[in-house]
Predict the structure.
Amino acid sequence: MTPVVALELASLLQDAALPRDVFQVVVGEGPAGAALLGAPIDKLVFTGSVGTGKRIASAAAERLLPVVLELGGKDPMLVLDDADVDVASSAAVWGAFVNAGQACLSVERCYVHHSLYEEFAKSCAEKTKQLRIGNGMDAHTDVGPMIRERQVRIVESHVEDARQRGARILAGGTRLPQLGPNYYAPTVLADVTHEMRIMREETFGPVLPIMACANDEDAVRMANDSEFGLAASVWTRDRSRGERLARHIHAGTVMVNDVISCFGISEA
């Protein structure tokens, strides 16, 4: 979430005659958050990294301050052998690249049954290449810039690590300096493995890594092979099959044929 969203919300509430200062917005980075944590507040809700969340929880415990933490994710998407490739690939592209992949609920790992793997990867790459990249304030833009150059470097390092370890780059894989310092091309990777950082660490950027799986059990095993447990999705034409599989995935929220999640995550 960019500060503009909160600022616009504040403006709307003022227009609706909400008393001044009932809803306040303070824009800042680490020091602003630290000051808020030390203020005489009754509760704190934080969305961000696991590391920062741990520090907040520790500091809040000293005051017995109630906190709600929504932390990092490495959300898996499981595409079963009976899935609609066109529908699932569109969902993967949207889920991976909305907000330039800068959401803890972004699709960051994709496990596809081997019988659909090449078709699915090709479809994702083709759709990704059609995305319009530009100013995020432009309604016609599909993918905007990343929040800061430091995050671009993290994405670059993950993609380069994957490439050196044998991943195929089907789309993107480079910065877009002609657009600005914080633009990175929406990227689709194939032939990834769990030895790669792109499958182990939160990337938080516009990258969709796709890995083949042998069967349902294999897909669940790989989805659960992560320290993150935020959200996941299962894609199949058989909803009851998807729901059965979802019960075995270690995530706070598991969706069937959808990549839009809700709040309240047990393992985040």
Residues 3-70 form one domain. DSSP finds nine helices and nine strands in the chain. The chain has two domains: 3-70, 75-256.
